[in-house]
Specification:
About 10% of the residues lie in helices and about 70% in strands. It has an 8-stranded antiparallel beta barrel. The protein is mainly β and about 200 residues long. The chain has 1 helix and 8 strands.
């Protein structure tokens, strides 16, 4: 019991000084590949067509740090991004984040593993029923369960404000009942406010 109280007395002041909550906003471009765009007629019948595209979106999120251990912090991260319209994408992710705040360096590197949701929108290239050419047009939408692994570097600016220098991530989506599993790469930059 004494050891537990001693550990508690040592950990509580560090936890009180730790920045518990971080809110961030980012410019969030994503490159999506192997995204379904509809059923297209070919000489062997109808086949699922796919495309790749770049979606320039904006994003934001919140990180709750729950376990500071010296220069290492563990936290839960909840984030989302959007780019409306055709060739757009929306995402919502929840993950575990591990960051390091080296006492000598000003940079704050981190890594994260997340799972969530991705909605993609492309031009509908489906061949109209009963025809062998042409496209229906309009928007073709898909929803995927996804995972993403990402890492980045934050740089302290003033007080509780950091600059997210860069965050790079990559992941994969799974559309239930479909063989097309799109992949994506994200590159984010923005501002982080700590509380």
């Amino acid at each position: 019991m004494r050891r537990f109280l001693l550990v508690l007395l040592l950990v509580l002041p560090a936890a009180a000084r730790a920045q518990v909550l971080s809110v961030y906003g980012t410019f969030s471009p994503a490159h999506l590949s192997n995204v379904a765009t509809g059923a297209v007629y070919t000489t062997t019948g109808f086949k699922e067509a796919t495309t790749s595209y770049l979606s320039y979106g904006v994003g934001g999120g919140i990180t709750a740090n729950f376990l500071p251990l010296g220069p290492v912090r563990f936290g839960f991260d909840l984030r989302g991004s959007t780019k409306p319209g055709i060739s757009g994408a929306d995402s919502a992710l929840f993950g575990i984040k591990v960051s390091v705040h080296p006492p000598v360096l000003r940079i704050k590197p981190y890594g994260q593993v997340s799972i969530g949701y991705l909605a993609s929108r492309t031009t509908n290239l489906s061949t109209p029923s009963g025809q062998t050419s042409g496209a229906i047009g309009g928007i073709f939408s898909n929803q995927y369960a996804i995972y993403e692994i990402m890492g980045g570097v934050d740089y302290p600016l003033i007080g509780p404000l950091d600059f997210r220098v860069i965050e790079i991530g990559g992941g994969k989506g799974i559309l239930q009942g479909n063989t097309n599993n799109p992949t994506f790469i994200t590159v984010n930059t923005g501002l982080v406010l700590h509380f």
